[in-house]
């Protein structure tokens, strides 16, 4: 649940007057995104999302994120389209914060995706990678393999308080990943956070992808591994290979995995599971007393790590060749 | 900021299928109302607010609130219109809670109303009272004079911790109000909580009134006194008689105050100021540690009480005859 920056009616009307979108009709703070303040805005011209960037987003990254969403939209991907103001800028300021207006997307997040949702998501991910192919800007993935040891160091002393043996399991995975992390895979723009809450569906068709604030330049197949982790495990911790098969096949309808990506898939999955286990663990150990936000469970990803540690080939994830 | 009940996509789609409003297109939790969970819902048919009633609202009161909004809408007042489901019911259940769908109203709350806003609000209040005239249901005002002593008793021991002398000032006001509270004034449906966040404007015209969950049957002029308190004081604590004049004149364009209401106005204003001072004081003294919600300042209403204690006639509030 987001904490909102308050925006007065006067500030809002002055901000919107900088765009060619008519007068403000209504504006409501919405519970979407944990990093920023978001508002559903209606004007005489249509519906928009107004985002105020709070301090967890680096202001210097905003031109990358906003430029990327414009690029992807221009290349046919349905994602929020940043609206340009009368000066031609996508980034403005409101209530003392960097702010942007993007188009409103219809759709619902699914809480329990089925195999058809996974297939549609795989295809949407492929389209995202294709649409991002010639995006000229780059942004390093701060949460890839070189970023994991600092997270591990920050959390390891208390890891066994969360689950006995967690420190050792994380250490072993980290050692193996640092030694064997694949280099030279096809890279490009990745979303890097395509969990179910960032994908909208109408029925079983993807109606849009949102929240590009972890997007960066990295191995394309790493993005697929994040989605396999986020979408294809069951609540009991087992990997659902039917969902994995649907997702990989959906992806390959748009972009066929290359042999080195196929070979690297188990390691990539293990890496992305470690990445989310570690960031969740750090958040878990740093919940302020009395906080209303319940942090996400790091042990969900500890269980996924154990699956990936034993997997030996992409076929175990549902690749069919 | 509201704490939201989570609603899954499956539950939501099943709930909406009970209405003749087409398929769900999107649904976002919004930061509106502190008592309930609210969602901005788009369907193929239009925009709605979906409300899940949390435990602070008594379920047995819901037929009064929903019936009232339907009655007021039918009589031309712009307020949320509860949508009937296929069985003809306005009240349903979703995620284990009583739930209702109402029409979406455009408009913005003003943070700093000017005299024209106050005039428009006064007129809207008059229209609300006129539209409610023949509403057949009644609901007692639990927060009128007989409800204040229990609040005072709950807070008095700690009142001076909040401001020296506050206990004595509240006790004196309460004694005077209990002795002299007017009886026999014209009564009807009152909103009883028409603060600026419950009034939408487009430009300087009222576009709708919302949040009828304190509505009850009480003296109509008491409702006006609540608005005078909420809208016509300046941040420095002074009463702005230009705003009061605009509000009362606006109200009287629709419904002229009767002589006994005119006479009672200072006492009614003092009473409503005490009511909000006491409920705020109780909330202030009962903030759970670590809460993110900052309670509203009871001392704002302590200062207003002191103005009303000295006022001797409705002319000091801007009545012009």
UniProtKB/TrEMBL annotation, chains A, B:
Residues 27-255 form the Aminoglycoside phosphotransferase domain. Transmembrane segments: none annotated. SUPFAM superfamilies: Protein kinase-like (PK-like). It catalyses: L-homoserine + ATP = O-phospho-L-homoserine + ADP + H(+). One of its GO terms (molecular function) is homoserine kinase activity. Belongs to the pseudomonas-type ThrB family. This is Homoserine kinase. It comes from Salinarimonas soli. The gene is thrB.
